[in-house]
Amino acid sequence: MKQIYALITLLFTATFVVSPALTDPFMGFTDSQLPFPQIDPPIQPAGYAFAIWGLIYGWLIVSAVFGIVKRGDSPSWDHARAPLIASLAIGTPWLWIANQSAIWATISIVAMAVFAIWALLRAPLFDRWWLQAPVGIYAGWLTAASFVSLGSTAAGYGIVFGSLGWAFVGIISALAVTLTVLSRKPQAPEYGFVVIWALVGIIAANTTAVISVSALAAVGIVIVAGATVKWWRPATVS
């Protein structure tokens, strides 16, 4: 069946998008989930930043529908679909997992990010707005979110640093991953823009109350923006 990958992508995109309506809202890790509760950890962006999920959900659905109608048997699309399916399959129960265990939530979202980035790197240069762009914003947000989860959980278990130290580690690590991805996929500036969106959210959440984190996030914005502009080149298809 030539369209099997397209069908499975549409199926898991649908379950991923619908899952928030079938799961209790996730408002951050609760006091009972962490030995050292993390109330508004400095690595967490302001609440408004999470509204980007609306764009992500909508664009992924459009991509999946277009894919099955117009690119159902495309080997190039299938090459990217395989890791995307894995990410969406893990992401479907993620909200439920996050309400149960901070550790498993962190492991799961890191896995989601890895597979999403893999899908982005595999995305063909043609049909950019139909596949690469939605996967890029999805991967970009997961890159930031995975380090937010890691930093909150590690600080919550008192591993090496407190919340401030893990905010620094998380931001620097997210920047390292972002620059690596952009260097490998310079045709995907949308990935970098979404990471910038997350960094702006961190500044909005901390402002001058935690000026060191806000300053690091601001430096990160300059670095990611500079790298995105410097490395970007239009996609060319031979």
Describe the protein:
The chain is about 70% helix and about 0% strand. The protein has about 240 residues and is mainly alpha-helical. The protein has one domain. The protein is globular.
What are its keywords?
238 residues, mainly alpha, 9 helices, 71% helix
The level of helicity is over 70%
Number of continuous helical runs: 9
State which percent range the strand residues make up: under 5%
State the shape.
globular
* Unreliable stretches: none
Structural class: mainly alpha
Mean pLDDT: 93
Pattern of helices and strands = HHHHHHHHH
**Total separate domains:** 1
Sheet with the most strands, sense and barrel status: none
Terminal CA distance: 28 Å
Briefly characterize the structure.
With 238 residues, this protein is an all-alpha fold. It has helices at residues 4-18, 52-70, 75-91, 94-100, 102-122, 128-156, 163-184, 189-206, 211-231.
What topology does this entry show?
Elements: H1 4-18, H2 52-70, H3 75-91, H4 94-100, H5 102-122, H6 128-156, H7 163-184, H8 189-206, H9 211-231
